Amino acid sequence: MTLRGISAIWQREMLTFSREKPRIVSAAINPIFWLLTFGAGLGSTVSIEGINYQQFIFAGIIVQTILFSSIFYGAYLVWDRRIDLLKAILVTPLSRSSIFFGKVLSGVTLALIQSAIILVFGLFMNINYTFFSLFLVILTIIVTATGLTALGLIIGSFMTSPEGFQLITTFVIFPLFFLSGALFPLNNLPAYLGMLTSINPVTYIVDMLRGLLIGLQYYGTIENLLVMTGFALIALFIGTQAFERMRS
Amino acid sequence: MAIVQAVNLTKKYNKLTAVDALNIEIDEGEVFGLLGPNGAGKTTIIKMFATLLEPTSGTAKVNGFDVVKHPAKVRESIGIVFQEPSSDELLTGYENIKLYAMMYGIPKTEIKKGISEALELVELTSRKDDLVRTYSGGMRRRLEIARSLIHKPKILFLDEPTLGLDPAGREKMWAYISRLVDELKMTVLLTTHYMEEADTLADRIGIIDQGKIVVIDTPNALKATLGGDLVTITASNIPLSELKKLKYVKKIKQENHKVILTIENVSKNLQPLLKFIGKIDSVEVRNTTLNDVFLKFTGKRIREEGKNTFFDKIIQESTSKA
Known about the structure:
By secondary structure, chain A is mostly helical. Helix content of chain A is 77%, strand content 2%. Chain A has one domain.
């Protein structure tokens, strides 16, 4: 694994992003729609533990953005593999883990750019940031995007054709999002929902972010931290293995 | 010493044998052409040499390194241009090559010079800052050749280098390839299903059909195996029995007032032949091509399979006796 190799992959992705600005912007506009319609609409009658619903789902919407952007970015690998782009990289002496980490780094960068747009929007929703909370929020976003990009790359490395893309939304992103407490509080859930949310690592990430952003937290901070970093590390580990085994 | 070598190299997919016990040796500085129809196993062979595909059995060595045991060493030794375009459309030509230079670990100080040399060679310098999206098919292929040369590999693999190019683009591409063989003294393994391409570029040709090498030789030697070129003569009176006595007449086939002769060294022997026959109505000479060679060794045409022409039948008949 070489830094220069990772940097080459990262630069490639960044140059591509910079020429596909509409894609990044539209990915950041979607969540703002959510906040303005779903959040404000329900928020006009619903408040949770004295907190305005729009503010309540703010953390969840950030995570939703990262979920879509990172997982799809990773899974997009299948397209690189379909055309001969990836083959040309695989035939260089660059190690597969360099390619993998270069891709993860790119997915994280993309997630940070999109989250930044939403965080700025948060100012208009009376989210109070301190320098310290913002620092921790960004750190959380980095760890989250790392795990989720790696997950996307794992999926992309196993897929053989882009036709399965729709299935990712249905069977990966939606369950992770809707079963995470992004849109509802975790106390007083029916037993089955409580069980499903508690085994979803994204639940702990949303909880962590919500704690940092509006001070409302269900699990303990240590618990959240452990799940969050554990998820990222496991995804990185499986991802590097999957890349080694990936067929060109 | 062979710089590219395969010993009983085999690739099987379940029951299908894509490459069947391939044995070849390519010498340093040689241009070797693998000629065969689509699906003959050419790309599979290149992929195994390029470490992208593990052989089922047998061994392959490139620049002295075993492709399975030392893939990284093999990758450093080779450049490859794939059949399908593999450059980033949203990057410029320059950026494309620069990123690959980084992946090959070329020192920063040498990158700029290396890229401009490579771009110069394929005459893309003036377009280097344009997005690849705006390039024509031929320009993309040339860019990929430049990219594959950036780490100064000893061996270049070209998989169907002119596939999808128009005839003018194809000839231009041949000129570039010949030039880099001359200037850089590279060893080239190219696959193609264009007879003319193999004929123009390759020092030696391996005809491949259904995963097997049928014959390996120089283009001229391969053509010589057919015994000569075909001369069709129409005349009212053809002295058949006397024609048979001529040394350079290898084969005679008659149809009404038409006779088709297989003539050795036609450029030299045509005139005496015509003099010998005397008054004729028409004459037509058809030089043997690699197409005919392919037909002889595989029993089929490389492209329009099953649609054998009249000449094909004659070539087949002449070879079945040989």
